[in-house]
Amino acid sequence: MTEKKQLKIKIIKDGPYCVFGAVPLSEKIITPVGKHYEYREGKKLPQKENYSLCRCGETKTPPFCDSYHNQMDFDGKETASKLDYKTRAELLEGKEIDLRDDHRCAFLRFCHTEKGDTWNLIKESDKKEERELALKSAEECLAGRLTAVSKNGEILEKEFEPAIEILQDPEKNVGSAIIVKGKIEIEGADGERYEARNSVALCRCGKSDNKPFCDCSHVHVNFQE
After folding, report:
1. Sheet of 8-11: strands edge to edge?
2. What is the DSSP pairing of strand 8-11 with strand 17-20?
3. How many other C-beta atoms are found inside a 10 Å radius of the C-beta of residue 22?
4. Structure letter (DSSP) for residue 64
5. Burial of 41 (0-12, 13-18, 19+ CB in 10 A)
6. How far apart are CA 161 and CA 182, in angstroms?
7. pLDDT digits (tens, 9 = 90+) for 174-195
8. Dihedral pair phi/psi, residue 61, rounded to 5°
9. What pLDDT digit, counting tens, does each position of 163-177 carry?
10. pTM across the whole model
11. With contact defined as beta carbons under 8 Å apart, do 49 and 22 qualify?
12. Vertex 114, ends 179 and 137: CA angle to 5°?
């Protein structure tokens, strides 16, 4: 297992995400299968000890930074709250399990299943199949928006190993978010840290109004690498 304490993402003011500690980097494809979605492997990406990922959306060497943010006068001001997830999230009560929702949507669509969306499945979580689908769909919401919890507040999800995934969304014909897994430390340009989460989605189109996190803007602006 990779030593998490050595892993870090440092956000540079009006610049890239600088990644330290040989965090595994891969590309994943959001793929519709029937009425649900799957993550499938994309192209191989180079593995490095340290690397910088584009945040402005205009690099010619995606997903890596090529310093174009300096030419375009990129405004990367971080506006997202640094309050912890539990404080920010709404608690929605279900039959046997509950759901926390902080409304930070990255339009990954894994909350949609053959038997309905995660919110409705939670309401019917006294039924085995609905409960299992609710757990699965919440866990696959890699933006970290949805978290299934037991009635005593226990988080019901597996812990991810540290990794960074560049998402592609061919169904919408756009490049999607950067997924950060495994409670990797993310330090803002001001030196303050965001809460380390099992998974979060970072903006890479440069247009989010909730930087550094994704807010679905890549879909609205038709982001192309």
Report:
1. 50-53, 17-20, 8-11, 185-187, 193-194
2. antiparallel
3. 16
4. B
5. exposed
6. 5
7. 999 999 999 999 999 999 999 9
8. -130, 55
9. 999 999 999 999 999
10. 0.94
11. yes
12. 30
Q: How confident is the model at residue 144 (pLDDT cuts 50, 70, 90)?
A: very high
Amino acid of residue 97: I
Long-range own/partner contacts, residues 3-7 (CB < 8 A, 24 or more apart): 4/162, 4/182, 4/183, 4/184, 7/162, 7/182, 7/184, 7/185
Q: Are 198 and 184 in contact (CB under 8 A)?
A: no
E strands, the chain, where?
8-11, 17-20, 25-33, 36-41, 50-53, 90-92, 98-101, 112-113, 116-117, 146-149, 163-169, 174-181, 185-187, 193-194, 199-202
**Cis before 170 (ω within 30):** no
User: How far is Cα 102 from Cα 92, in angstroms, rounded to an integer?
Assistant: 11
Q: Dihedral (C-alpha) 138, 79, 61, 43: value to the nearest 10 degrees?
A: 0
Is pLDDT above 80 for 2?
Answer: no
Question: Which two structure tokens, joined as six digits, stand for 9?
Answer: 């993402």
Residue 3 has pLDDT above 50, yes or no: no
